[in-house]
Amino acid sequence: MAFCAPKCLHSSTVTLPTKLPQLNKPDLHRDQKPPLPRSPSPPPPPIETSGRKKSKPYSLKILRSKPPFITDTNLVFYSKRIDTLCRSGQTEEALRLLRAMEDSNSKHLFPDTVTYNTLINGLCRDGQLEAALRLLRQMRARGCPPTVVTFTTLIHGFCTAGRVDSAFEFLGHMERQGIAPNTVTYTALIQGLCARGDLDRALQVLAQMKSLGGDCAPNVVTYTQIIHGLCQKRLFEAGVEYLEEMRLRGCRPNQVTYTALIHGLCQVGSFTRAAALVGEMVAAGCEPDRVTYNCIIDGLGKGGKVDLAREILGAMGQKGVAPDVVGYTSLIQSLCEKGMVEEALGVMEEMKGKGIEPDSVAYSTLVNGLRQAGKIDHALDLLGEMGKKGLKPVGATFKVLYRSLYS
Fold first, then answer.
1. How many domains does the chain have?
2. Residue 175 is part of a domain; what is its CATH number?
3. How far apart are CA 337 and CA 348, in angstroms?
4. Which residues lie closer than 8 Å to 180 by C-beta, 6 or more apart?
5. Lowest-confidence segment of 21-35, 202-216, 259-273 by average pLDDT
């Protein structure tokens, strides 16, 4: 078997422009085995909302304190306060502060484009799209013209909410106003199209970006979105082709790019191809991270190669990548599916011994495995342990176990 992952991954010394994705944990459904965390999704493109250098967040005490005397620097101070409020989810407080700035009689305190963009981004992040649109209209009425950042922020917000058609309307609107879209704008649209499975249109946008070039040229985030979208459709060959294309265009793949393809190949049992891609990743100087390892463990487990999955989990520490609850839960799930519940219990104890606390998904996975193996007493013990830790069973774990007891 060519997938000698521990050796391949650790044979040689081997950055992300954006935050790495996390593996999400869905609910467990009644009469179903608890599913593993879903496959990772590349992060949304970074939306810049401020031209100013970010500062450390203010404490709530400062935020609620009496404003200082009005000086030329007050606009920056209050804009930073608005940014901090938005980041902490206090958009209503941020709106009130904006109103106070607008109502002040000081020309030094009147909000500028950066201030409005900051609040529009906060509203979009909260899903308050209509409020963001109202603020756009208000911004114009106050003599603050929207910029490419303003429109890109709104386009990203609408795409995230699944309103891709509205996002394209904004694209046309900004172009009619003579505001040129950039790479981030188009990448936000590609993300939205891929999320709803419209790959044909996403590829059309990519082709347009390549044709325009310059400030609209696709970057690593753009290609990663495309590759992930193709993998979601199980079009792995096309994904590999776009990986090669981005290399030829001088766009270096990162962990997220490689991981999207590796995970997809593992899911369909193409372990040899996945191993080769891991080798390419290492040779390119791109260190596999925890998400990459978790995807390999997940894929191997689903492919029935539990021993190799366990070997890779154990080898992670040798490269300075600490395993987490997601990787352990994947292995526990795979062991339970093969009826190896005693081994799964051992993995749970190993996880605890390393200071990694099992979460509700990990416990529920093992409880279901024990139930299916007929070890009801042990399953009940685990439920009791969960209760002591304040953890609730995921999905219908308790109901299914109760039904097993009294059916």
1. 1
2. 1.25.40.10
3. 15
4. 148, 215, 216
5. 21-35
